[in-house]
Amino acid sequence: ATCRPSVLTLVFWCLFSRQEAKLAGRRGRSTSLKERQPNRPQNERANSLDNERSLDTRCHLQIPRKTVYDQLNHILVSDHHLPDSIILINTSDWQGQYLSGVLQNQHLPVVCTCTTADIQAAFNTIVSRIQRFCNCNSQTPVPIKIAVAGAQHYLGAVLRLFVDHLSYKTPDWLGYMRFLVIPLGSHPVSKYLGTIDYRYNSLFQDTAWSDLFYKPEAPVIVQESPDVVSRVTQYMVGANGAHQLPIAEAMLTYKQKR
């Protein structure tokens, strides 16, 4: 038996050009994301772990809500056509509830998830519809932009499902989905994307955005809020550069044929 390393890569879509994406990719190969991130205080790491544990606990207590399937069925209307984008929002926090309300008023393709069961149902449905599209069509599907709106622990929950599903799929599936990060709270990955994409940084790392969405408590009155819909729409429409970010590495064991 022989062991070989295998790296699973998550592809984020950014606002920079393809040429800028290549340069960012070259810059990013020398160090890992973990090495680039500043050391977080112990209490912040603990809070992040608590959030992830609470999501896992809720998964055992609840089943996916009907509204999740209703929203998905409204977006995924045909086996012969896939949507350009889907916005997954963590609505267990006030930030996600506010964002989902604003975006839904503009009829954007929003899926509201409150528990891990909701996220799993949404991701299962998306993967299933992509598979059905491939079964019904000879052409390769255009990558779906999947925006993940929430804090860091919410992105982590989505990534677990991404890893679980793609471990049973062919390498082609890496090109069927592209992820966009919309930060609602503490988010090291978003901060990293802001360091390599100045347009992304201007949308989601400025004071106006952080003052609104990084507060633990909902403001009584939202005053002088940034144009949330415009920022999200600019990101969804303008993202055309792919940045690959390794998220997992494993040693795969296989036997050579004699």
Automatic annotation (TrEMBL):
Domain Phosphofurin acidic cluster sorting protein 1/2 C-terminal residue range list: 68-257
Residue numbers spanned by region Disordered: 26-51
Presence of the UniProt keyword Signal in the record: yes
Biased amino acid composition, Polar residues: 39-49
Keyword Protein transport: no
Biological process terms in GO annotation: protein localization to plasma membrane
Protein name per Swiss-Prot or TrEMBL: Phosphofurin acidic cluster sorting protein 1/2 C-terminal domain-containing protein
Organism: Hucho hucho
